[in-house]
Amino acid sequence: MNKTLKIIGLFLFFIITSALLIFLLKLASLKHKLNINQPAKLTNISQEETKYENINVYTREERDNDGRSLLYVSYPVTENEAINLELKKKSQIFIDEYKTVAQSQEKAYLDYLKKTGKIAVSMITEYIQHFDVSFASDKYLLFVFDQYKSTGGTGSDDSISVLFNRETGKELALSSLFSTDNYLEILSDKSQKILNERMANEAKLLDFTNEEAKTQWLERGMEQIKAGTKTNSENFDSLSISDNRELIIIFDKYQVGPGSDGAVKVKIPLSEISQILSPEVKKIFEIRNTPPKENNPGNEGTEASPSSSIDCSKEKCVALTFDDGPSVYTDNLLNILKENNIKASFFVLGQSAKIQPDTIRRMVQEGHVVGNHSWDHKNLTKLSSEEIQKQLSDTDKLIKKIANYNTTLLRPPYGSYNANVLASVNKAIVLWNIDSEDWKDKDTDIVAERISQAKANSIILAHDIYPSTIEAIPQVIANLKQKGLKFVNIYELFAPEILEKRQVVRYRQN
Ligand code: NI
């Protein structure tokens, strides 16, 4: 009998616990439904000090709609009320947009829930604004805002810089950090080079099925870099200056690379762009212009050596050629060449000549040969005849205008040419037989070593866009002089013969 009672007891216990469990579950789900109708809200506001004197950070964090909507906004508060008002106004725009988006997103969420009874986990709205103090001086305040917006699984991340005059409280255009009108061109040019180089390095680490796939990948990337670094102020709306004196350009996601790269940063040492920085910025970061080389009076007498004095059919000649410039390093190279009384040949890009006309003028004045290297380093074999001619004539016209100089020599970018290129140009094509590969190894010793392999009649290829190359030149001069070689420009190397139009040369044939 005892056994029957036990079974009944157990049975009752099971029924009661089950009922209790069901009741609790119901209650929980009811509570959940209640929560949906009256969303839980959480707001946190705080103000804290930063490491900068008189700059605090205000933070506002809101969680709404049961955590489905998140707003996080931080912005600086300074001693200047006008600045604070402006920052608050900018942040309010961000907040207002969040409110509108979160509201409509929440409505869509509730509609979906009602219709399907399912919870859509991805329907979350997140608006996050962070800020950084880039630098703070008595006169300038530069802030960088990062605004991240995500709605229902898709998002954007934008970075933007805001500059203030700290005394007047007025917002300034970022161009106030610079002293010249062409600063965008310099920034564009520099960042393009850095990004292209980065991509070329990346290509070496990737596995491509074949050479063509690699070329295509590189070309696509370069196209995007070119578009994203075009000289408009929106492309360069996020600038910052680091404590170790570098200008940091932040390109938004997708601007210069695939989305997987996120925001892309390019750093340029301020010393490399001192010629475009405003006096105020130079003062703050103690950047001096590279002092002009003292003219050694003893050198002046020997300087003018007529080009005809060297006969390369009798003497051992070698021609130094530099491509892709002019760059901010070219002047240093010209100083070195001048000190050593050496004439070289520069194959310049029209787009770079436009930025540094003075350097082109100096090349011509100091007896160097200036040749055409296209306008913007396009692979000429991929262009139509008209496009090839435009690449060359735009560059020619510019050089004529700035230095009253006619170019007769072409070095096609990548040294690549085909029948169409030959048919489209009326210049001699100057290639090389000694390649410094200085783009690959930015190492002064390696570059100096490679160039020092040159023999009589060699044409040496180097690039005056890498400081490591320019640093290698004094060593190269010493090594080659020791071999009894004389440095000549391209005209001198082939004289007394004149290079014919469309003639392709890689070295002098004796
Ligand atoms: Ni080149």
What does this molecule look like?
- There is one protein chain.
- With 510 residues, the chain is an alpha/beta fold.
- The chain has 14 helices and 19 strands.
- It has helices at residues 2-37, 81-116, 183-205, 211-228, 279-284, 297-303, 330-339, 350-355, 357-365, 385-403, 419-424, 444-451, 467-482, 490-494, and strands at residues 42-49, 56-64, 69-77, 125-136, 140-151, 154-165, 171-172, 239-241, 246-251, 264-269, 317-323, 345-348, 369-372, 409-410, 428-430, 434-435, 458-463, 486-488, 504-505.
- A 7-stranded mixed beta sheet has the order 1-2-3-4-5-6-7, covered by helices on one side. Strands 11, 12, 13, 16, 17 and 18 form a 6-stranded parallel beta sheet that branches. A 3-stranded antiparallel beta sheet has the order 8-9-10, with helices on one face.
- Helix 2 (81-116) links the parallel strand 3 and strand 4.
- Helix 7 packs parallel to helix 13 (467-482).
- Overall pLDDT level: 87
Helix fraction? 40-55%
**What is the spatial order of strands in the main beta sheet?**
1-2-3-4-5-6-7
Which consecutive residue ranges, at least 5 long each, have pLDDT under 50? 33-39, 289-308
| Span between termini | 124 Å
Instruction: Report the sheet with the most strands, covering strand number, pairing sense and barrel closure.
Output: 7 strands, mixed
What would you call the shape? elongated
| Strand composition percent | 15-25%
